[in-house]
Amino acid sequence: MPEKHVHENLFVRGLHLVDRFFHPNYAGLVVATMFFGLSLTPSLLPRDWFFQGLISGINATIGYGIGCALAWAWRKWAAPRITLPEQVSQAWDRRPSWTLVAVRGAIVVACLVFAVLMSIQSSKWQRQITDLMGMEPVSDAGYPRTVLLGAVVVGLLIWISRLVVRLVRWVTRGLNQWVRIPTAIAKPLGVLVVVVVAAMLFNGVLAKGFFAVANSAFSARNSHTSPNAVQPTLPERSGSPDSLAKWDTLGSEGRWFVANAPTALAIGQVTGKPAREPIRVYAGLESGDGVEAQTDVAIAELERTKAFEREVLVVISTTGTGWVDTTSAMAIELMYGGDTALVATQYSYLPSALSFLSDRDKSMTMGRTLFDKVYDRWSALPEDARPKLLVYGESLGSQGSEGAFSGLADIRNRTDGVLWVGPPNSNRLWSEFVARRDPGSEEITPIYADGMSVRFAASADQLSKPTPNWNEPRIVYLQHASDPVVWWSPDLLFGRPDWLTEKRGPDVSPAMSWYPIVTFWQVAADLPRAQTVSDGHGHNYGNLVPDAWAAVSQPPDYTPGLAERIKNFLFEAAATERQLK
Predict the structure, then answer these.
(1) What is the pLDDT of residues 506-545, one digit of tens each?
(2) Are the beta carbons of 287 and 297 closer than 8 angstroms?
(3) Rounded to an integer, what distance in angstroms lies between the CA atom of residue 7 and that of residue 18?
(4) At what angle do helices 545-553 and 560-580 cross, to 10 degrees?
(5) What are the b/e assignments for 2-21, b being 16+ CB within 10 Å?
(6) Which of 317, 380, 419, 538 has the most crowded Cβ, counting Cβ within 10 A?
(7) d(Cα 126, Cα 118) in Å, to the nearest integer?
(8) pTM score, two decimals?
(9) At what angle do helices 3-22 and 99-132 cross, to 10 degrees?
């Protein structure tokens, strides 16, 4: 046999071997590569190669499934209805044996080259995002690994899907052979059986088991006490010897909250005036048996500490683990010279991401119950003897806090001001305000009813827009254009949001676009990294909170000089907390 034919046969055998081993669907491969490339386009936050590889692999797998479905539809309905000219059919029949395999090989190479080129371009986009956020650029060295990791994820997910297909076939055969159901009926019935069983497992047994294990694991973490969280001795703190909420019942975040309040001395050094010891009340999950008992303990603590005699009383809804942002708490205490009382309760052991999936109703129940009880006690006081009643919540805490109110009129009737920071896109009131924003205002910084009562801001100057004068009580939402907590929504799967049709925010890449399915997973991958970016971006609002509190409820002696001193103190306190906690 001529050497040329030997080489040709070896080439064909090699391509056949690769094709037989991987057994790809080539239409699926092409669509998967398109989805992979689109997933490398910019999202809200910079991503390292590992996160990018995971999200690109998930998107590519979805694309592969869509491509397979399109190929099946083509074979099922389109191809049988197409008749090729006889000459074309004859030419196709006389083609060399290696032609089809070579075309498939060329498709694989083209897809690989496209993926590599897109990963190179992606690293440039990532540098653009870090520049917008004033961060160190993401290293280019790791980005070639994105393609490899993405391929591994795709391979693993396709392998799992093929196992599911085999399971469907096994069920179908069983229905056909054992139950004597005709094949035409057994096939869709087999799919239905597998889908129903899987749904029951994931929504029932597996979900309950997962959250039970997670709850157990995080409850152990809840028992941990930072060595820098020392039991307070001042009677103005929960967890002190005089407290009705015992130190060991407050949980990890609760103990940190009451142990690290600024002292009257520290506040006085910032304000230049005598200060009072701020009151911090906290009830953990173990402080009472259930929501009613917990909130009763919190009210009793407010009574014990004479919180209703202070100038300001702030009702705080915590995040999943019971966390309260230190900067937000200290800011209001410093502004009012310590003449404040802050009250918070824990509703879950789980971090916010897991609480969002399992404990959302708990957060709103706790937020509503706590506020209602505080309001009932507060409203029983003579009007001239009441403290200012303010409401605060960050992230999932804002959702729990919103749960206390039916609408804007209810907020205005029962509070003296509200600050909600980084609200999740699923917040009911937030969604209503944004949907009803004034014509011409953008979704990232909407204007509602001329900004007379409700305002949205990503920077201090936006708090005074559209006019410096507005009504009291005031409601402020802080939201960055780059915060995935605010913008992630299931609607991203198939609907282009307004914030991606409008001009991009100042810290969002102009190259970010919306793609069906892909953008949903891109923004979902941004969620766990929402607080890993620099301050003033993503889900980090610390440097904006003092300005927001001043917009909601500014004390009469608040000056630009005092504001600057407070910000400096908070900056140093936040840096210290990161080192100690």
Answers:
(1) 999 999 999 999 999 999 999 989 999 999 999 999 889 9
(2) yes
(3) 17
(4) 130
(5) eeeeeeeeeebeebeeebee
(6) 317
(7) 12
(8) 0.88
(9) 60
